[in-house]
Amino acid sequence: IYKGNDNEFRIALIDDSSDDTVLWEDSSIGSLTSSPDGEKFALVFTDTSDIHIYSSVTKSWESITVTGPSYSTSGEGEAAEAVDAISFDTSGQKLIFDFSICRETPDQEECLKFWSVGIYDYGTKTTQYPFSTTDANLDIGYPKFSNTRNNIISFDLINWTDYEAGGKAVSNVIIYDLESQEILGNYNTNGGETLTDAWGIPSFIGEDDALAMQVMLDDATVMVHFGLQNNYQYKLGSLYEFPFVSGFGRAHRNAYKNITA
C-alpha cells in the first residue's frame, strides 16, 4: 500500500499481475501501513493524534488516541499534537509510531515541541514508551521495526543540545535494542555544510541483511544502503550510494536489492 504524488492511496500486488488499485482519494491521510501478513492496516490523518487500525479478520476498525507517557500521580499522559510515521512489527501485533507533544514550560508563552516514539500492542491494548524520559532537546522520528525481531528498531535522532553553540543539530540514524536498551548502530544523516538538521528515514532490508537510509546535503538528498552483521553492526566495505538524487526510500521487506522510493 502506498501514497502517490497525486495523494491517492493505492494497493499494488507484489507479482505485478494487475494494475494498482486506488483505495482512497483522500489527501488528508498522512500515513498508512500494513502488517506483513496482510491481515491489518493502519492509517493516520494529517495533524491528528489518532491511529486507526483495520483488521481483515474481524472486519472491524479500532481507533487509538495517542498520549505521551504519564509523569503525574493522576496517571494521565500529555495529549499528543500529531502522529506521523507508523509501522507494524514482523508479527503484526505491535505498531510503532512517532508523535509530537507541545509541553508547557514555566515563564514562557509558547510551549516546547518535541517528537518521541511509542509502541502499541494490539493484543494487550497497551502502549509502551521506550524513551519516556526524553527531553525537548531530542527529536525522535521515523521509527521502524526490524524485519525479523520486534526488540530491534531503527529511528532518526535529532539532538538540539549544542545547536546554539554550533548552529547545527546532531542528526543520526540509530539502531536500537529495546530489551538491552543499547545503541547498536549510529549513522550520520547530515552531509551538508549549512543544513541545520537532517532526517534519514531508515528501514531494514530483507532479513535484516542491510539498512537503507537517506543522507541530506545542502542542495540534494541521496539514498544509501549498507550491510549489517548478525549483531546489527556495520559490515565493512558494504556501503552503496545510489547514483542519482533520491530520498524517502523504503526497503522492500522481502528482498535485499529492491527499494521503492
Describe the protein in words.
- This protein has 1 helix and 21 strands.
- The chain is mainly beta.
- The strands form 6 sheets. The chain has a 4-stranded antiparallel beta sheet with strand order 4-5-6-7, with no helix packed on it. The chain has a 4-stranded antiparallel beta sheet with strand order 8-9-10-11, with no helix packed on it.
- Strand 9 and strand 10 form a beta hairpin.
- It starts with a strand and ends with a strand.
Give the end-to-end Cα distance, rounded to a whole number of Å.
13 Å
**Helical amount among residues, as a percent range?**
under 10%
Q: How many whole angstroms does the radius of gyration measure?
A: 18 Å
The H-and-E topology, N to C, reads as EEEEEEEEEEEEEHEEEEEEEE
Mean pLDDT score:
87
Percent strand equals: 35-45%
Largest sheet: 4 strands, antiparallel
Question: What structural class do the secondary elements suggest?
Answer: mainly beta
How many helices? The count is: 1
How does the overall form come out from the CA principal axes?
A: globular
